[in-house]
């Protein structure tokens, strides 16, 4: 089954009749809906912890899409051909769209996107650690598509079955586009690998730099991820961080072989007993440092986002003034 078939089928699963009755209070309806794989919708009763967890998770996801435009945007003006420029431009625009759907999903939970943007630029909310690494060569664009969008797909396909309806539905379209991003990255790398020795070396160097940060995208190891159990009980999350990381490694190893690149981990080996790949220990000290703001590009990413927000103030002012004028006019009596 393809990603698209599966995601469409899962996100359109029906919601059981969820009206509270004198016998069933709203909390019971919520629990029963979640247990029956139904969807919680914006007007349904939900526990405050569920709402807060979703706001935190979806906002973090939206911020990652928006901040994630920067490392790739860095190469739009330097893409080696018109074709590569058009592809990269389209991909970066897709990421902007993903951010906007996700901010809309958070708004169904009673928060405002301006408030979320302010939290991002004040570093009170996080985004994915991966976007704090620099894009040094054009091979990084291929590797980001292959590994970073590939890891995003592993993380996000199960979210199409998330219990919160607006999030699950947003994820369907996002996953279809991420799947395209992953393939364009792979195709770019195939082209480079069929080129010169210098091009092949450029790809290997990019793989060496992005492999470990890509594994960190799945978050801390299960033992250090305190919110996972509650998120899984609420069916916001469907698999643990380590399960998804393992799935990504198993999916990527044969792709690396097909490309002819080496993944930079001497401990990487097939384990017949587990029917999965063993792999080396992640540098968790690096992960923690990057999450806390000490990665190579954290300050630059936030400064850039802050400047874009401040420079956009006149657009928001103009849009508000236009909307107010329009509202005044519609109140005028017809002639
Ligand atoms: Fe995206
Ligand atoms: Fe993407």
How would you characterize the overall build of this protein?
Helix 3 packs antiparallel against helix 5, helix 5 packs antiparallel against helix 8 and helix 7 packs parallel to helix 9. The protein is built from 14 helices and two strands. About 3% of the residues have low confidence. The protein has 335 residues and is mainly alpha-helical. 64% of the residues lie in helices and 2% in strands. A two-stranded antiparallel ribbon has the order 1-2. It binds fe (ii) ion (FE2) (2 copies).
End-to-end span in angstroms? Answer: 61 Å
Number of strands: 2
For the report, how would you describe the main beta sheet? Answer: 2 strands, antiparallel
The distinct bound ligands, ions and cofactors come out as: fe (ii) ion
Oligomer: single chain
Put simply, the count of helices is 14
Report the order of strands and helices. Answer: HHHHHHHHHHHEEHHH
Structural class: mainly alpha
* Helical percentage: 55-70%
Q: Please state the average pLDDT score.
A: 92
State the strand order across the main sheet. Answer: 1-2
List keywords for this structure.
335 residues, mainly alpha, 2 strands, binds fe (ii) ion, two-stranded antiparallel ribbon
Write the layout of secondary structure elements.
Elements: H1 3-11, H2 26-35, H3 48-67, H4 69-73, H5 82-107, H6 113-121, H7 139-156, H8 165-193, H9 197-216, H10 228-233, H11 241-259, E1 269-271, E2 276-278, H12 284-294, H13 298-311, H14 313-331
Antiparallel strand pairs: 1-2
Helix pairs in contact: 1-8, 3-5, 5-8, 7-8, 7-9, 7-11
This protein binds fe (ii) ion (2 copies).
